[in-house]
User: What shape does this take?
Amino acid sequence: MKDERKLQSTEDFPIEEPARQYAFMDRLKASLSVRKLAENREFTMHVETFGCQMNAKDSEKLAGILSYIGYVQTDSEDADIVVYNTCTVRENANTRVYGRIGNLGRLKKKHPGMKIVLCGCMMQEEHVIEKIKKSYRFVDVIFGTHNIYMLAELLYRSETEAGRVIDIQSEATRIVEDLPSVQKYDFKAGVNIMYGCNNFCSYCIVPYVRGRERSRRPVDIIRETEALVANGVKEVMLLGQNVNSYGKTLEPAVSFTELIHEVSLVKGLERIRFMTPHPKDLSEALIEEIAANPKICKHVHLPLQSGSDRLLKRMNRHYTKAQYLSLVDKIKEVMPGAAITTDIIIGFPGETEEDFADTLDVVRRAGFMSAFTFIYSKRSGTPAAEMDGQVPEEVSADRMKRLLACIGEVASEQAERLTGSTVKVLCEEYKPETGCVTGRLDNNLLVHFDGCEALLGTITEVRLDECKGFYYLGTKTSDL
Ligand code: SAH
Ligand code: SF4
Ligand code: F3S
Assistant: This one.
């Protein structure tokens, strides 16, 4: 049903942000309340995240805007507005999205009023937009990673203009602060500290779809953290593709170490995590800050990608196997109990059995607590896509099997060391059927123990009775 009231041209809205977006939100809110009254029902939204923590954080902002307008969240895709926040880091992320858009089209046939919105990293690729224009004509709104703050404006245009609205920007021109956001969890939240990436690792599409590095001002980061804590958040994760280069472009420049220290001063905040540091820039000052600061989790996620110097060079990673291992040694020397986790790519172009052996060697020597492992996926437009020596699928699959076995062994050995100790955990889940609470350790592993719902969102002490490889069974030792 179209809103009958006189429609304003988008030129009549304020130019400054975020005032402009609030004006669009208010306008949409007013027309939605008319529809709510007329149809005597709630209007629903479904926002789905396909990618990384940064993608998830963007989804919280998108959901925040829709919730301000008056939509209520639903798990079902059969909603009045469906938003797919896509990822394109690997081909399978991409394929999954196309399949799901097809399903949405079938749903929309049954409910023609449904609005379908596509956004996120995949939309920054030209060939994707061409394909959607041609094969998925039922999509209403498409935008990329640089203008997610404009969701309300684009929805308004979709309601007032004929045809679908496509607005892909090639570079981010601004960081818009102070838009609404709804958190997925009450007790933990991600906080963006920077956007984009300048590293251009040769396999990676992220710099092309997320643009150049831009840092948020410390004052905005602190203000957001304070507001989250005031709402009950105990743990924040500072997010960026390469957090060590935070603040370089700010005036005056601020280092990540200074920022994390400042964030830790927020009263009521209990735990801080961060993702992702790049091994080439992890400073000693940061390692010392992590060690000395009781609020910072003793966990460093340090993506290795490969243990072979030859491949690291071809990957444009700017470190060697020896440098990576000495960084690990440094972390362990300063923080003996620290957990180190990693990302590894198997089957990068030109990977030989010898290169792979180097990767296994680093896995054993670094003693990872866990690892995300990926089979190399060719991303068009990246330098690696043009490299010779693409590795056959069955070879990668076989190496992956061996890598997983090796990581399994190393990781359970690491986890086993904590058995019998008493640790602090953030209680993240409660299952009423079993009375079981799941808590997250400082090192990111999970422990299941008997407890009650009131523990949710609190930090409590638990004894780790038994190690099950990637998780523990435990007993709560502190009183609630
Ligand atoms: N900025 C982070 C990670 C971003 S993407 C970093 O530098 O570590 C997350 C992980 O996806 C990467 O660490 C890498 O292991 C993996 N990845 C990225 N591009 C890939 C590709 N083309 N094929 C397979 N895995 C890839
Ligand atoms: Fe991709 Fe490398 Fe940037 Fe990480 S640091 S996002 S892997 S280009
Ligand atoms: Fe994240 Fe995927 Fe984009 S990993 S930055 S959502 S391509």
Summary: The chain is about 35% helix and 20% strand.
